[in-house]
Amino acid sequence: MIRTILLAAFVACVQPTPPVAVSSAQTTSATIAESPSPITVVVHGPPITPYRSDILGSKPQNVRNDIPNDGDRPRDVSDLRIEFFARRGAVPFLCESPEAVPPREDKTIPPFGTATFNRELCSLPLPGKYVIDVTTTTGDAIRAASFDFVVHAGERNVPRALDAYPNLYAALGGDLSGVRFTRPEWESGAYKVVLRVTNASTVPVPVGDTDMVFRVTKLHQPFACTDTKHVDLPKRLNPGESAIAKVPVTCILDVKGRYEIHAMIGDVELAEIHVEVTSDPLLYLPLWPW
Predict the structure, then answer these.
(1) Count of Cβ atoms closer than 10 Å to residue 281 Cβ
(2) What is the C-alpha to C-alpha distance for residues 95 and 122, in angstroms, rounded to an integer?
(3) In the listed set 122, 152, 182, which residue is the last one of a domain according to the structure?
(4) Which domain holds residue 225?
(5) What is the Cα–Cα distance from 136 to 151, expressed in whole angstroms?
(6) What are the residues whose beta carbons fall under 8 Å from the beta carbon of 6, sequence distance 6 or more?
(7) Is the domain of 165 the same as that of 117?
(8) CA-CA distance, 210 to 107, in Å (whole number)?
(9) What is the pLDDT of residues 64-109, one digit of tens each?
């Protein structure tokens, strides 16, 4: 375990700009000696997680935060707040954690004891190496620590760079909420794929609306149908910002069989999604290749 000692003074309100860590490691600690009520925080951060196209981001991981009480009196931590900030190179990414706090979490730390506080790290939109900055606030004391975190692209359907937009990435996934579709429902656009575009640059990127082209083929058949759908996107994305749109797929050759759905923006193929459609309206099965 590597401990990193960070000396800093933070204001009570943490701004969206992530705190700067002197160095990083998988396990870090941070102490501010000038604080009138100093505490030590040891952060155990996960080193790696896979990118998952079904959620269009990294698989959330647990981050363990150990807080020892070096004093001879119980320490009140009922107002404890733990926040994460992510950086991929020089680009900050929003990293909100679930607001729910475990119901049995300690509210006080006994004298010379240690309490553990677990928080779920956010899902990050792109593969690559991040630095996760952690701030821990209780009372007037604010602590900062950081750890390196890698989102591993181990599958085929990963975000793709769009040639027309520098450092803009697009990723496609299936909408798992779609079930039991009949042919009229398919034709009305009941089945949708989910598009996520992310700005990985340090400057705002103009985006605007775009078109997505679908090419749907039935397994073991040479025939295919194509369909073009207009996608509404924001006029621009700020650094680290993402936009999500649901796009209907209405191009299906029949109501029974296995299909491959290829989706493209411009000349960039985003993904290949496998689905199986049955004539039985009570059965619809998405076949994800990841």
Answers:
(1) 12
(2) 5
(3) 152
(4) 160-287
(5) 24
(6) 21, 22, 30, 31, 32, 144, 145
(7) no
(8) 51
(9) 999 999 889 999 999 999 999 999 999 999 998 766 566 688 999 9
